[in-house]
Each structure stands twice: as structure tokens, then as C-alpha cells.
Amino acid sequence: MQIIDNRALLLKVREPEKITSVIPKSAVLDSGEVLVKWGIEEAQVLKNLKYKNVPSPIMGQYNWPGLYKPFDHQKVTAAFLTLHRKAFCFSEMGTGKTGSVIWAADYLMNIGAIKRVLVVCPLSIMQPAWQNDIFKFALHRTCAIAHSSTQEKRIKAVNSNADFVICNFDGLEIIMDEVIGKFDLIVVDEASAYKNPQTKRWKTLNKIVTPSSWLWMLTGTPAAQSPVDAYGLARLINPNGVPKFIGAFKEMVMYKVSQFRYIPRPRSEDIIHKALQPAIRFTKEECLDLPEVTTVFRETPLTPQQKKYYELLRKQMTMEADGQAITAVNAAVMLNKLLQVAAGAVYSDSGETIAFDCADRMKALKEVIEEASNKVLVFAPFKHVIQQISEELTNSGITNEVINGEVTATKRAAIFAKFQDTSEPKVLVIQPQAAAHGVTLHAANVVVWWAPITSIETYLQANARVHRAGQRNPVTVVHLQGSSVETKIYKMLNEKIDVHSRVIELYNSITD
Predict the structure, then answer these.
(1) Of 410, 356, 401, whose CA–CA distance to 376 is shortest?
(2) Which of 38, 219, 310, 356 is deepest in the core (most CB within 10 A)?
(3) How many CA within 13 A on the CB side of residue 86?
């Protein structure tokens, strides 16, 4: 197969009439070769006729706009998606899936194949991942977020005629009637949230998707907990590839060993692979052009309880700052209180712990862990919060160990060795100061900051536990943030600014 002037494909085939009978703009040359217009519809037809390695015209007819040059694997992923109306992308977290999707969608808009895109994703990545990336990769496209305290504002976003509309999973039900028929392409990020077809969430999406809809589902872990998890995803993309009822699929991939226990059948992976097609996947190890460290942020809104106390503290800071000289020590103490509220636990002057509901942050953490293909380090600066995280992960069936200042050196060494050399635990929850210099924890390639710290040295050293010699995969560092003080501190840490040297300036910016 040869590309001619980025406009046509020249094919050597045994039966030219198979092509000319279904592709109008094609011709048989005197040489017996077939000349076909290189368009998206023609490429899709050739692919459906089982011709191998059919290139998408995006590879030769698109200028890849935006602030960044695409990596090779991003181009391949975008090309794959343009050739499949319904498809999976199972590439690992941190491989740039959103960029590939945005470029592919922009190309399809350019050629008139689609008009609008609906992105359905977790609340925590609506703005920091999707909205920001749309502005980076397709600056000429418009974007609206359909998330608000009122249904009217959500509907306004849907009816805004923005090229991309971003909605969270559970918010989709609220605007379902408005969404139907208004979007050609639906993109579902962290699609494992749709593994169960019996949920309202799944049924809502299924009502919106039509046979003519484009639907791309993204997740790095399509069947992380059980082979049965693949069923809900397959029913949306490849319904003919699985039985009509989930019970029949479960019998295909699992067998019963006791009253309440099932284990995977020997060939369950082959069945799942066949069901979850068409699909593309890149691991971090395969993406040789990726940067060594990718930094991402997730928004985790404060709960009403947290907002109340956060504002009370901030107002107190404002009153104290009014006409008074604030010392660096006092500023650091007050800022630390704000960080404690956002993280989920405040320590009183008498040493008592006041715990807060931080459900959105915990949900975002579990989403990251579920998407991670390898182990995960979670850094949390406060002792009580570390315990909260560990208990919640345990209750969710996620194996974890805890390292804080109270863990003895001997026990600490044993936990580190277990984390590095065995399959469990999946997660290590660590107080950053307890991750001593020289400790190697590259069994993980995902780092999650539950809340920021104010020491640039400790921040860099903590990240270096994973990003060091022997690490086989690029590292992803995820920052959870829900308050202005957290956003500002993370920005300073990533710009390698010493927070302590600017603590008065930071204090004043919070109290303005």
C-alpha cells in the first residue's frame, strides 16, 4: 500500500472489484493496482474489508495544532480512533490519552465527520485534565463544563454550542434529555466506572449512545478486579461480542469453587481480549518518547463541612492581618491549619483531632489507584489523615501499608522490602518526612500527593523514591487539590520555589 501525494492510496490486490464495487472514488489502473481516494470513509471501508495496516488520513492531512508536538504513540492512537466509530483505548495512565483523543476529535470536526464532543469523566479531572488539555492541544476549539449547583446552568453548557462539553459521571443523568441527539462523539474517561450494566450510571450512558454514535472509552485497567468487569464495557462498544446477559458471561470467564467464591477460568483472558475490541494500548514502557516524569492535578472540591471551617479560618487570618505585622512563624501556623482542613483533619491547641468528611478527595484517590497498572505511593503529611486513608483503602479491598514517624526502623525496612519484592501491598501510604534519603521504591511508578507540604527539599526527595535508577517506566505524579492554598503551594513546589521564603507573600494572597 502506497500513499500518493497525501491524497490517494495505491493498493496491489488480487481482486480489485472487491474495492471498486464499494468505494465509488476508486479506479483500476493498467498495472492492475487500485487507486483509492485517501479519505476517512474510504480508509474505514478498507479496514472493514480486512486490508491490513490501512493508514488513517490524519497521519498525512492534519497539522497537529497546539502547544506541544505529539509523541509517536499519540499519533498512532489518534489514527486508530479516527478509523473506529466505537473503540477502546487501554493505554496506561500518564501516556497522553487525552491529547490523542482531542487531536482525533479535532481532525474529525475539520473534515465534517462530527460536529460536537461530549466528554464524560470523573469530577476531579474535568477542569485540570480535560478543559486544560483542550486549551493546550486545540486552542481554536471552544469548551464548556456542564457541572453546577443548578440544572439550568448545566443545560446552558450543553446548549452553548461549545465544540467540547465536559460532564461528570453522575451529572450525566441530570442532563440526559438535553444531551440526546446533540453530540456525535462521546468520550468516556476512566471508563471502568461503567463496568456494571445494572447501575443507573451505565443505563444512562446506554440510552444516550446510538448505533450511529461515535464512542471512545478510555481506561488503563478494564478488568482490574474481576474478569466480569469487562462485561459492561463490552456491552457498550462491542455488544455482539458478549452474551445478552451478564450471568452467561460470568459462566464463560469464572467458575464457582465455593458458595460465595469464584475464580477466573484458565482462558478467561482470551475471552476478555476478544470481547474488548476494537482496542489500542500503549504501556509506559513502550512509550520511549515520554518524559521521565509527568505532573498532573486533580480537583477534589471541599465538602460543605470543610468549606465552612476553611472560610472561618481564612476570615480569622484576614482579621489578624488587618493593619498588623504578621511574622513568618504565625503565617506558617495559620497556613498549616488551612492545609489540615483541606486534608481532612485539624489538630486543636490541646492536641485533639477534629476529623472532616473528605469524600471527594478519597474518591479521587481510589480512581487514581484503580487506573494505575503498577504500585502506588501516597504521600500524606498528617498522621490522622494517613490512618483515614489506610482504613478507607482497606475497606475498599485495596491492600496497603503505612509508614509514619511512629513506625520503627526495623519494621519500616521490612515494609519497604515487602513493597519492593512482593505483589502486595498495592499501595504504600507514607508521611513524606518518613521517606528517608536513599530509600528505593521504584516498584511504584505513580505518586499521589494527598495534600502538599511546604518543604521543597522533602517534596523533591519524596518524589525521588520512585523516580530513580532502576525505574523501568516513566513516573506520574498526581496532586490532589481543593483549596486555593493547596493550588498555590503546589505551584511553588513545581517551580522549585522555597515556600518558607515566601510564606508572608503566600499568607497575604490567601487573606486578600
Answers:
(1) 401
(2) 219
(3) 15
Q: 197: phi > 0 → left, psi -120 to 50 → alpha, else beta; which? A: alpha
User: What mean pLDDT comes out for the span 101-114?
Assistant: 97
Give the DSSP letter of residue 464. T
Domain range 293-300+355-511, its CATH number among 3.90.190.20, 2.70.150.10, 3.40.630.30, 3.40.50.300: 3.40.50.300
Instruction: Please state whether beta strands 254-258 and 261-264 pair in parallel, antiparallel, or not at all (unpaired).
Output: antiparallel
Mean pLDDT of all residues belonging to the chain: 91
Question: Rounded mean pLDDT of 98-120?
Answer: 97
Compute the distance between CA of residue 114 and CA of residue 401 in angstroms, rounded to an integer.
48
Q: What's the pLDDT score for residue 349?
A: 67
CB 275 within 8 A of CB 242: yes
Burial class of 418 by CB neighbour count within 10 A (0 to 12, 13 to 18, 19+) = middle
Q: Is the pLDDT of residue 48 over 80?
A: yes
Phi, psi of 21, deg, nearest 5: -75, -20
Q: Where are the alpha helices (DSSP H) in 30-163?
A: 40-48, 58-61, 72-82, 97-110, 132-137, 151-158
**Is the torsion defined by CA of 379, 510, 129, 356 positive or negative?**
positive
Q: Is 452 helix (H, G, I), strand (E, B) or coil?
A: coil
Rounded to an integer, what distance in angstroms lies between the CA atom of residue 162 and that of residue 141? 8
473 pLDDT exceeds 90?
no
How much is the pLDDT for 436? 60
Lowest mean pLDDT across 248-262, 273-287, 343-357: 343-357
* Rounded mean pLDDT, 317-345: 80
pLDDT digits (tens, 9 = 90+) for 480-501: 999 999 999 999 999 999 888 8
Q: Which CATH superfamily is domain 62-280 in?
A: Tandem AAA-ATPase domain (3.40.50.10810)
Question: What cell does 493 get?
Answer: 513546589
Give residue for cell 483531632. 353
The full 3-state SS of 274-337, as one line of letters, equals HHCCCEECCCCCCCCCCCCEEEEEEECCCCHHHHHHHHHHHHHHHHHHCCCCCCHHHHHHHHHH
